[in-house]
Amino acid sequence: MRLLVTGGRTGYLGRHVCRVAAGHGHEIEAVASVECDVRDPDAVLALLRAARPDAVVHTAYRQDDWDVTATGAAHVALAAAEVGARLVLVSSDVVFSGSAPSYAESARPDPITAYGAAKAAAETVALAVCVDVVVARTSVILGDGQSPHERLVHDLAAGGEGALFDDELRCAVHVEDLASALVELAANDHRGVIHLGGADPVSRLELGRLVAARDGLDVAALRGASRAALGVPGPLELRLDSSLASRLLSTRLRGAREFL
Predict the structure, then answer these.
(1) How far apart are CA 82 and CA 133, in angstroms?
(2) 3-state class (DSSP) for residue 57
(3) What angle do CA 32, 186, 105 make, to 5 degrees?
(4) N or C: which end of the chain has fewer CB within 10 A?
C-alpha cells in the first residue's frame, strides 16, 4: 500500500504513523507543512495527483488555527476524493462538550471550544465528500516520553509554574497504539466514525502522576487545579466508548494505567 501521511515529517503522531507503516512494509510519502500548505487547495490537489496514494492519513493540524485544522482538512478530503484515495482523518474527543456520561460513534458533536468546532467541521466535510473515509476520534496522546504532556510534567516536577487539572477526564492513548490503529484502518475497509481512546478515563493530574512515577520524578511536586473553578473553557469529562475499535481492530488500545 502506498500511504501519504500529512504531518509525517515533523508532527508528533505523524512520525509514529510513518514508522509503524514502514514496519508493515507500506510505501510511505511523509509530508511536512513546509512542503505542502494544506490551506492551499491547489497545492494539496497537486500533491495527491503526483503521489497517487492508496490512502491518506491526515494528522496535520494547528490547535489555534481554523484555516489549518478545518479548511485544510477539507482541502485534503476533496483532493483524496478526486484521486480516489482512502482517507483516514484524525479527529478529537473535543468535538464533544463533555455533558454526556460517555460517547459512542453515533453521538452528535456539540463542541464548546474553537478547536473542537474546527475538528467537527473537518469531520463533516470529510464524511460528506469522501466515499472511502474513516474519521478516527482520539484523546490525549502520549507514552514515548516525548509528547507535550510528558514534557510539561517534567517541567512541573522540576519546579515549573502551573498545575494539572484534576477535574478534566480524558481517555489517554499510547502514541504507538494509536499509530498502529491508524495504519490498520488505512488498510481495511471500515468506513465512517470510529473512536480510538485508551481504556482508562483519567484526569490530567492522575495522568501527570503516572508519568512522574514512571520517570522517577517527584510526584508530590505536581499540583492540581480545577478547570471548572478557574473558568478555563473546555469540556471536563470526555469518556470515549472505543468498544467498536476493540471488536474491529487487532491493535489493542491500552489504558494509561497500563502503559504508564
Answers:
(1) 13
(2) strand
(3) 105
(4) N
Alpha-carbon span 90 to 214, nearest angstrom: 28
CB 103 within 8 A of CB 240: yes
Using an 8 Å Cβ cutoff, are 176 and 235 in contact?
no
pLDDT-flagged residues of the chain (< 50): none
Give the H/E segment covering residue 196: strand 192-196
Question: Is residue 190 within 8 Å of 132, Cβ to Cβ?
Answer: no
| Predicted pLDDT at 52 | 96
Q: If phi over 0 gives left and psi between -120 and 50 gives alpha, with beta otherwise, what is residue 107? A: beta
Let me know if domain 2-139+174-197 sits in CATH 3.30.450.40. no
- H or E element in which residue 83 lies: helix 73-83
Q: 130-133 — which CB contacts under 8 Å span 24+ positions?
A: 130/77, 130/80, 130/81, 130/87, 131/81, 131/191, 132/84, 132/85, 132/86, 132/87, 132/191, 133/77, 133/80, 133/86, 133/87, 133/88, 133/89, 133/191, 133/192
Query: Cβ neighbours of residue 163 under 8 Å, at least 6 residues apart?
Result: 156, 205, 222, 223, 224, 225
Of 124, 130, 148, 129, nearest in space to 207 by CA: 148
Torsion 145-179-204-163 (CA) sign: positive
Element containing residue 235 per DSSP (H, E): none
Which tens digits make up the pLDDT trace of 207-219?
999 999 999 999 9
